[in-house]
Amino acid sequence: MDVLIIDDDQVNLKLFARMLAALPNVTSITASNPIKALKWATVNEPDLVLVDYMMPGMDGLQFLERFRALPGKSSTPVIMATADAQTDVRYRALQLSANDFLTKPVHKTELRARVSNLLALRQTQVELARRADWLAEEVEKATAKILAREREAIHRLARVAEYRDPETGAHLIRLERYTRLIGAMLGLPQEELDLLGQASPMHDIGKVGIPDRILLKPGRLDDEEMAIMRTHSQIGADILEGSTSPLLQVAAILAITHHEKFDGSGYPHGLKGDAIHLYGRIVAVADVFDALTSERPYKAAWSPERAAALLRDSCGSHFDPQCVAAFFAQWDEVLAVFREHRDT
Ligand code: C2E
Ligand code: SIN
Ligand code: SIN
Ligand code: FE
Ligand code: FE
Predict the structure, then answer these.
(1) What's the pLDDT tens digit per position in 27-66?
(2) Which of 22, 141, 241, 282 is the 20 to 30 Å CA partner of 33?
(3) Domain 2-134: which topology?
């Protein structure tokens, strides 16, 4: 352990250093100039400081005040050496959180005892600090693990719906890509883009609650069947809502809003314009484009150009114009995703 000794008297310095040489594991660093000692302490971590009060230029109290202000030095043990009569000095030193005093002339037994005690305290401090660092690291690791598991559980939840729905895994991938393309073009920050992209495969999770005779019907739905089909938005929200997980919160927003239409003619709430969460307006474009360009039990796959024409025609009625514009602004990327992730 490093003990920094500051005394303007070279003889005292040597004397203190020799007294401490008898203690195991102690290295003395001596300084006759308190300013130089402060400089040393800004780049080194002394385990204990022994400072004389009476020094020309900068006295022990001034040194202590500036030493305590250095980063990481608020609890380093400090012993101040004073003359017996200087009670007021001792009070002020205590206010600046000196840990102990020695009365000059200093006796070696007393010096060693006090230094040993404070070094033991220092040892405990350092170990506690190390343990706190270790714990913080462990918490960070555990948190990363929990987040990864959360993401995995959520992706598996999305796959539950996938198994019942004629829609394929490729649809979920394309939907996520289209969603990210639009969100990025609209300037969403990366963190939000990731949440939105990861949540997008769950927008139709409510379809697990739709009977097979409707979900898998190989033809057009009649009005009554369509009414039941439309409950998938609310079922999805019921499954996903009320979570503390940001990812599930975004997924819940998508479930309840992705069939709302910009002019208020959508479902389940008939929300209009900005009253529909931006995430829902984004996914509506991505979802319909992908539904149109995919084969369904009730329809053949459309070409991307025919689907684009429908988006353009429904711009402002079904879709938010800024989301449609963001989609078309990246048409080449859209086509690349379409070609790369075909249904198998
Ligand atoms: P989905 O197949 O993923 O379609 C999502 C949305 O894309 C539809 O929402 C609709 O806005 C649009 N879309 C899909 N196919 C077409 C189409 O051929 N023409 C036009 N103009 N738009 C289309 P929507 O209508 O609320 O339907 C929600 C879900 O209900 C669909 O998801 C699908 O699973 C089911 N569905 C809708 N209509 C039928 C149908 O006639 N027969 C069957 N079996 N299922 C249907
Ligand atoms: C330090 O001051 O160097 C670390 C914290 C402590 O041991 O009190
Ligand atoms: C299209 O209209 O087919 C593509 C979309 C566009 O480039 O505007
Ligand atoms: Fe849907
Ligand atoms: Fe879908």
Answers:
(1) 999 999 999 999 999 999 999 999 999 999 899 999 999 9
(2) 22
(3) Rossmann fold (3.40.50)
